[in-house]
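Quick start: read one record
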Amino acid sequence: MQPDPIFNEFVLKFGTVNGSGSASANLLCAKALFRMGIPVSAKNIFPSNIQGLPTWYEIRVSEAGHTARRDGVDVMVAMNPQSYKRDTAEVVAGGLLIYDSTFERDFGREDINIVGIPIARICAEHWTDTRQRQLFKNLLYVGALIELIGLDAAVVEDLIAQQFHAKPMLVEPNHKALHLGRDYVRENIDIRAEVRARPANGTKNKIIMSGNEAAGLGALYAGATVATWYPITPSTSLVENYERHATKFRRNEDGTLNAAIIQAEDELAAVGMAIGASWNGARSFTATSGPGISLMAEFIGLAYFAEIPLVLFNVQRGGPSTGMPTRTQQSDILTCAYASHGDTLHIMLLPGDPGECFTMSVDAFDLADRYQTPVFVMSDLDIGMNDWVIDALEWDDSRQPDRGKVLDAAALDEVEEFARYRDVDGDGIPYRTYPGTHPEKGAFFTRGTSHNDSGGYTEDGRIHAENLHRIKRKIDGATERLPAPAIDIRSDLSRIAIVNFGATDLAVREGLELLDEAGQTLNHMRLRAFPFAAAVNEFADRHDYLFVIEQNRDSQMRHLLLAEAGIEPSKLIAVPNIDGMPLTATFVRDAVLDALRTLPEYKDALTPRISAE
């Protein structure tokens, strides 16, 4: 007799082959669970080749809203013999493993439930085309999940009909494959999963979206008309999504496209084009990942010193060199903070989910124009390429772009002497113009070599130093307009806290709850921008220790907090993670407890509790 099922709290994972067509079927399951009203998160774990290697797709299902990646799998659909050993090992005791029993297999575990379905044989009996057999295998296991875990059949069928609305002749065969899998389980399998899905109400006013789609949409709403890029994982889909939306919505009255999407010959050309377009008055951007930032460094320095607005989306991945193209990391923090040679300091926005990718994308263009400088939006593969459940996006139609200190022809006529790099207002930000604004005064006074305030060439070291100090002053002044850190004082008595940023936030917030259960209540601050606001130092001052959780080996954000916020080194405890996988709450709990044990004032109190675990 099976125990009573656990509803809407489980991990469903698919082990398949890259290029097998399984991605759409796996996404179908995630969308079906979402439409049943259950919060989910989906992680696509794929190789960097085109076809043939193992790939995985994880769905965390949590009505309680815990949608960070979780260790252990409750239901595994193992469709790739190459990864059977690994897939079997991940299933928790009492969990369910589904496999294609056309070729029967002994998995060597008696503590899990094995469900064999002759998927390949069933497909061979109903279809003669080889490609159809391959594709419909994926729908068969989705159909099996209708019975085994309680996927809503009507929801799945409706999603299939929507997917093929432009090709209605494909709906019936996909429904057929779905029903074949469902009916086989009904007629032949007595086992059901100990975890089940049932309708809930946890996705009201929520949407499923990836960070790259949200950022591309944000660029459109910000008024961007020029996108320049060179394809690189994991940023490629950001520009593709911008192009898709721009093609539909950015049209002139005569129907012509009011946007330029340019695939350059390399990253250097891409960033150079973006700088040129911005200098000419367009809102432009480029999207890349770590290797692209490395190549763009000299041009980034030009934009910084010539004071030309520039928006760069860095969807980070593992490095160095080519690194892990299809794994996530927060590996470019120091690279982007100080990109290029010489004395530079750059604004970075640190979105924590696709919703913030949208809002910070819009903010980035305003900040770049206001401060006449490069602005980095620091996403990563986990946010950029995976599907997240977020609040529905909102937009204020009354919002107007902040183009900063731009003089038109009439204003230039009122100026006795226009000096492109003169600090007129004392805030470090000079006035600029667009090319062609005025026949005598304006934008052609732009220089990347050392210059005086009118844009004239100089080798006077004193003037050069004054210029660098002015630029630094304007960047420091930007902190008042940057997104503030998200601070959660969970206990007024707590003298320890976690600091994190970006995609680690879901795992950190769930990890804080696990730490509560372990008897340790910590406060929390999520950094959302650099340079740091005064609130960062104020938060640090009220705590004895800050555990800085980040996904890179060298704790790059900790280095920034030391160098730029001046926080005591002894306060900042590094908690790095570099395995390329999205962070888990258990990692957060265990790493923090282990670190606490090294601190004399906490060691004695923690040892008994840790031993009990």
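The chain has four domains: 6-196, 209-391, 409-480, 486-612.
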